[in-house]
Specification:
The protein has 12 helices and 9 strands. By secondary structure, the chain is an alpha/beta fold. The chain has an 8-stranded mixed beta barrel, surrounded by 4 helices. It binds ligand C2E and calcium ion (3 copies). This is EAL domain-containing protein.
Length: about 280
């Protein structure tokens, strides 16, 4: 029994070491990837439901590893969140997206809203407002065309400071969206308190509409609540015409999903706009 216990312990401790080593290794590779400019921004259309027009895009990061090829964010964002490197990656995504947005404007493309995901690390860092200001100034991208996507859990932190930051961003005409709405710790009180523009209904609620009654009810409730509070609503992960018809019939403002397009590189996004 003693030997077995010891063996078990050794196995456990070795596997922990492996996991820790993997994490350190991936962190080092991610830092290198930043330095070598191996990250790419893909763009997924945000579609106005009433007109069917593309009104913007969400910027989604990918890692173009020279050996492995395109690596999706699910494989590296969680580690970057753990180590805090998401601050640097997020700053790069913001900069690159605004640079691209300015380039599109200069090429005569009609103004688009570009939505960028913001991690809680970036918000808590303290200089986020200054960083955004800096990026807008250096790229010349209009503040009113930038949308920042925050999650419910990010907003649950230091309320005073976050409220101040959001109010400042809003005073600069930057748009604020709540991402993955309905999956986090939500309270009606914070929805009322924060100066928001858009609620993004999480894909998990959209998946089974119009067939799952509960999901339909939840989606309708979110749409109505958002409108009551004066926010726009966007449904994420729309894959079928049936889902879109339901959303349209119930007054949802925008959608995003494979039905229109997967996230694509900048050049392909431009073709979507022109096609
Ligand atoms: P998210 O912010 O909720 O982004 C939407 C995700 O849903 C994207 O996955 C998008 O490709 C996917 N999606 C959109 N429409 C559909 C659909 O119709 N069907 C299906 N099956 N999926 C759809 P992606 O690009 O793999 O990103 C995953 C997550 O990684 C994002 O979820 C976000 O949380 C995170 N992420 C991506 N880029 C960044 C970034 O620059 N910064 C931060 N902090 N997080 C990021
Ligand atoms: Ca998002
Ligand atoms: Ca989302
Ligand atoms: Ca469901």
């Amino acid at each position: 029994v003693k030997a077995e216990g010891r063996g078990h312990y050794q196995y456990f401790s070795e596997s922990m070491t492996d996991a820790a080593r993997d994490r350190i290794h991936l962190d080092a590779r991610l830092r290198q990837a930043l330095a070598r400019q191996e990250f790419r921004v893909f763009y997924q259309p945000l579609v106005d439901i009433a007109s069917g027009r593309i009104v913007g895009a969400e910027a989604l990061v990918r890692w173009l590893d020279p050996e492995e090829g395109l690596i999706p964010p699910a494989r590296f964002i969680p580690i970057a969140e753990e180590t805090g490197l998401i601050r640097e990656i997020g700053a790069w995504v913001l900069q690159e997206t605004c640079r691209q947005g300015r380039e599109w404007l200069d090429a005569g493309i009609a103004p688009l809203v570009l939505a960028v995901n913001v991690s809680g690390h970036q918000i808590r860092h303290g200089h986020f407002g200054a960083q955004v200001e800096d990026v807008l100034r250096t790229t010349g991208f209009p503040a009113a065309s930038l949308e920042l996507e925050l999650t419910e859990s990010t907003l649950m932190g230091e309320r005073e400071e976050i409220t101040e930051l959001l109010e400042w961003l809003r005073s600069r005409a930057i748009r604020l969206a709540i991402d993955d709405f309905g999956t986090g710790y939500s309270s009606l009180a914070y929805l009322k308190r924060f100066p928001l523009d858009v609620l993004k209904i999480d894909k998990s609620f959209v998946d089974d509409i119009p067939h799952d009654r509960d999901d339909c009810e939840i989606t309708l409730t979110i749409i109505n609540m958002a409108h009551t509070l004066g926010f726009k609503v966007l449904a994420e992960g729309v894959e079928t015409a049936e889902q879109l018809a339901f959303l349209q019939a119930h007054g949802c403002d925008m959608y995003q999903g494979y039905l229109r397009s997967k996230p694509v590189p900048a050049e392909a996004f431009l073709k979507l706009l022109q096609g």
